[in-house]
Amino acid sequence: MSGLRVTVWNEGVHEAENDPPVMAEIYPEGIHGALAEGIRSELPTAAVRTALLADPEHGLTEEVLADTDVLLWWGHLAHGEVDAAVVDRVQRHVLGGMGLLVLHSGHFSQIFQRLLGTTCSLGWRDGAEQELVWTVAPHHPIAQGVPNPLVIPEQETYSEFFDIPAPDELIFLSSFDGGEVFRSGVTFFRGHGRIFYFSPGDQRYPVYHQPEIREIIANGIRWTAQPDRPRTPPEVAKLDRHWR
Amino acid sequence: MSGLRVTVWNEGVHEAENDPPVMAEIYPEGIHGALAEGIRSELPTAAVRTALLADPEHGLTEEVLADTDVLLWWGHLAHGEVDAAVVDRVQRHVLGGMGLLVLHSGHFSQIFQRLLGTTCSLGWRDGAEQELVWTVAPHHPIAQGVPNPLVIPEQETYSEFFDIPAPDELIFLSSFDGGEVFRSGVTFFRGHGRIFYFSPGDQRYPVYHQPEIREIIANGIRWTAQPDRPRTPPEVAKLDRHWR
Amino acid sequence: MSGLRVTVWNEGVHEAENDPPVMAEIYPEGIHGALAEGIRSELPTAAVRTALLADPEHGLTEEVLADTDVLLWWGHLAHGEVDAAVVDRVQRHVLGGMGLLVLHSGHFSQIFQRLLGTTCSLGWRDGAEQELVWTVAPHHPIAQGVPNPLVIPEQETYSEFFDIPAPDELIFLSSFDGGEVFRSGVTFFRGHGRIFYFSPGDQRYPVYHQPEIREIIANGIRWTAQPDRPRTPPEVAKLDRHWR
Amino acid sequence: MSGLRVTVWNEGVHEAENDPPVMAEIYPEGIHGALAEGIRSELPTAAVRTALLADPEHGLTEEVLADTDVLLWWGHLAHGEVDAAVVDRVQRHVLGGMGLLVLHSGHFSQIFQRLLGTTCSLGWRDGAEQELVWTVAPHHPIAQGVPNPLVIPEQETYSEFFDIPAPDELIFLSSFDGGEVFRSGVTFFRGHGRIFYFSPGDQRYPVYHQPEIREIIANGIRWTAQPDRPRTPPEVAKLDRHWR
């Protein structure tokens, strides 16, 4: 699976405003920069590009998506500023077979809500608490090599009820200091495409520099990628023959 | 479960145009009329109303939906004419706990696509062919009392690939004269709501007069109804305490 | 759903030995006695009987099972002493439509392993720690009326990886003081039968006296019961006709 | 994924008796021989061995299983003659991560029933009828390159209700001349292992020589294989620390 083409999308608003003020220190190249660096390190043959909300067409033109095997999505403050036409386009590519990794606060992105049909709401508290990520699907490729539990020293707390459809695969469950639990690693099949949602990672904590997190993201890219598939969404078909 | 409040929605375009010409003969009171009659017969205590595309707000005002335990949806020619604000409203009520039965060509309705996130496309051929409906979840309440297989003498043919997410429950599988197969009875949980898609039924065939079909629809209404649930969709929650 | 016939099975070994010594104090009528009392209180029309390992045929004769809508199973020390012929018989009744609630350390019972096909192993620690039970399927009948989270002050700790097949429905997730998580309320459909596994409850803690726990068990009984179903497991069928 | 170690198990009773009389003509090297030949052709780097009921320990010693990435299972007449200790051993290896492909009448094997917990019964008729295999999970690796539908000119008819748990993934649905439908390609995760059941193939028809069938079996081997996983089934774990 050499030469995967990966596009890391980030709204880039926290970075532009350096808010929170730790942002520039933790992610000097932006969250997209840290993600891209981790992917290049884990998947040396991958071709990684980044795209931002501020780019023309948010950097997600038809050409870019057609040249993308897996798209990562990170957003938080500006979900409403993403153009509906771009959401349509990304949805069409996912249904046609492009892999999609939705990260952390991307749970509230238009594209995630569009593909799942629910509010994608959850409970949250920001208190720099420990997150423990437990594997409940040890057979799954995304869980390979992951310690059980994986310890994230400081992280925003996410809690159930997480309003998503029952995932096609439940891979990781997290617990937090307050006793909260969260379905933190879940997959969905939609059309011809594969989606992996992974909740760890926040603008306040250096989670995307943690080696185990990078490994999970790399596993997720490998697992959602279908580089050999023609990029065609399912279509209505007028049946023109009988098979018996 | 007495006194369920059921709203039958129909676009009503075939009826208005008597196209196909058999329409007035098979469904003199409209598809909505036949559905309502069947429900009243099977669920004598239910309060059944009908609503049409041509009604103000398509007959689906906030008041009507708030007074509806289960909404049935039949549409075919005019999916694009349904106002987006009404689709938003129906989605919110489903996520809040209103039951939804989507019937036949309703697979291409905006509300079904919205709740599932996929194209909902399929293969089809109209040739008055026999449909056999097989039960693959005999434990399910919707399948109670249903013969295996159920024989529908004449029906439009629907075929895989049906572009839906893997259903939460697969209840019925159909086969057709040409050897096609179709996942004809499937359920989805979204938010607090329950959805049942059932494919038999078409403007050309008197399927909604068939007793077993009426029984399945009544089973589906009972199963999707949650009359005691407060109608509140999941919401984001700021956690204000620790549990340990 | 009046008059459900419920059989509470308990191995009764802890009770016979009063080991742990708190046993006689917490459960003077045995775990089966406390469960039966709770069910009678929550489901006043139910006919509740108890059965013990020490009874002839463990109290689970063909007659008893044929007269049982829902069987509860509690065991811990003596899983290996359950006669294989009784396990066969219970399995046959579950596949024929009898409801089964497997409780706590019953995860290691022969009948649970038999119906699931896996080791049903898990991680555990006994330290009188708090258990928080979170609802992740708010639409489910078993979750109706349950606080989120439900707090159990003291309980044995169970932890992932819990070696079960992916459940048909994931209803409850628990967390514990050490940060562990556990899929504590799960359902399985097998044959014509419905199974609910619920992990809270132990011989050292008065969990089965807690009102919310009693309510969940009553919900589970109502949900697994299929009193109107003929008690016939699926059988091989020689097809003697064509449907086309 | 070079060098997969594949063991093809066949009871070999039809072959020994040349009953049906076409057996020697269609499968002169036995069903196991035809399967092995197809695998060697599709997966040239695989090391393929065969094992028979008549072999000591049915050819499935601890050493053989420890040296097997994927086991194929074909049986029909002699399910009851398989030694329980061998079934235990195969189950342990599957739960530890060995891949398992169960073929056709293997649905009634002890190992399949053991891993699924149900009767695995179905409807059947032998009439040399056409089977159409439809893909309902086009995203799945096992479905890659498979025509939709795949046409098998002559085959035994299998029909629902197929008494299996809801599969973790439903990949193929078949229809037959009489209008029957069958879930013909399904996967299950059990413990650390992956199982693929595929129903086409019978002692009377040359199905295992058909190129598309060979391709599906090769896809199934690739997908169930986990050559890098330590072969350890899940075990109970006494937790010796707190994570918070």
UniProtKB/TrEMBL annotation, chains A, B, C, D:
SUPFAM superfamilies: Class I glutamine amidotransferase-like (SSF52317). Residues 5-224 form the ThuA-like domain. Residues 225-244 are annotated as: Disordered. Pfam families: ThuA. Residues 228-244 have a biased composition (Basic and acidic residues). This is Trehalose utilization protein.
